[in-house]
Amino acid sequence: MPPVSRAAVVSHGRTRDVSGALKRLRATAALAGVELLPDDEVDGADLVVVLGGDGTMLRALTRTLDLAIPVIGVNFGRVGFLTSMGPDDLEAGLARAFAGEYRVAELATLDVEIGGTRHVAINDTVVAGSTLGRMIELDYAIRGEPIGSLPCDGLICATPAGSTAYNLSNGGPVLVWGLDAAVLSFVAPHSLHVRPLVIGRGSDLVVRNASPEAQATVLIDGHAVGDLEPGADVSLCIGDRRSRIAMLPEQTFFRRYADVFGAA
């Protein structure tokens, strides 16, 4: 990749936690001759540097979705699977990135439509019961073909980037970065037979709230975007836009997977 001239900085907002890291980042950028931009000037950057965890990475990836600007992360969060380096590697890792020594993974997103409004999911879309502890019933169809109706606590539709988040905690399979696919997994299904399902591009999904009375909520990347009254539905498909995660060359998907989720 070409050397970086301008980099925007996005942090998780807890200044007391990253103030020291910001000073280290400024010093590293100065040595490399890189101009640092605030997070409200992301569109003028060659690279976005995130100081935070996976939530901050998602925020930066969403903001750069239409800009084709890669995002590289230094983990100041908890899991940090989407980041490329830990706090101790900030200087050395970012010096390499500023010199152009990084690669970019382009990852599938989800287009979501609810109530006539369109959204984009970087990580996942969740349909869950609006009342904690109250089961809902969901119908789902793929490519217009009904698959079934299932009492459950909810359904997760995750991208490859999101397959290592809620989907993984729920027992769903991990999708390797680069796959043009999404995975469906039900949350606490009232069934002995239901299993997660991996779908590819063109396998449009419609999920309908088949509960006679219970309301459901649709969440995109952890944020509620609308409610599903009984009989209402939400449509999902693999989108055309791609999120762009920058990684140091040695930080492959499998290296990250082993480091974060592998057995000790």
Structure report:
The radius of gyration is 20 Å and the shape is elongated. The strands form three sheets. A six-stranded antiparallel beta sheet has the order 6-5-16-13-8-9, with no helix packed on it. The mean pLDDT is 94. It is built from five helices and 16 strands. It is α+β, with helices and mostly antiparallel strands and 264 residues long. The protein has two domains: 6-102 and 248-261, Probable inorganic polyphosphate/atp-NAD kinase, domain 1 (Rossmann fold); 109-240, Sandwich (Tumour Suppressor Smad4), CATH 2.60.200.30. The two termini are 34 Å apart. Strand 14 (216-220) and strand 15 form a beta hairpin. The chain has helices spanning 15-32, 54-63, 90-98, 166-169, 253-261; strands at residues 6-11, 35-37, 47-52, 71-75, 103-114, 117-121, 124-129, 136-142, 145-152, 154-158, 181-187, 197-200, 205-209, 216-220, 223-228, 233-247.
- SS summary, helix count: 5
Q: Unreliable stretches, pLDDT < 50, 5 or more residues?
A: none
Give the CATH architecture of the largest domain.
Sandwich
Largest sheet: 6 strands, antiparallel
Number of domains: 2
Helix content: 10-25%
- Approximate strand percentage: 35-45%
Radius of gyration: 20 Å
- Nearest-integer average pLDDT: 94
The 3D shape can be described as elongated
- Say what the CATH topology of the largest domain is: Tumour Suppressor Smad4
Q: Determine the structural class based on helices, strands and strand pairing.
A: alpha+beta
Going across the major beta sheet, what is the strand order? 6-5-16-13-8-9
Pfam family, one: NAD_kinase_C
InterPro entries: ATP-NAD_kinase_N, ATP-NAD_kinase_PpnK-typ_C, NAD/diacylglycerol_kinase_sf, NADK
GO molecular function: NAD+ kinase activity
GO biological process, one term: NAD+ metabolic process
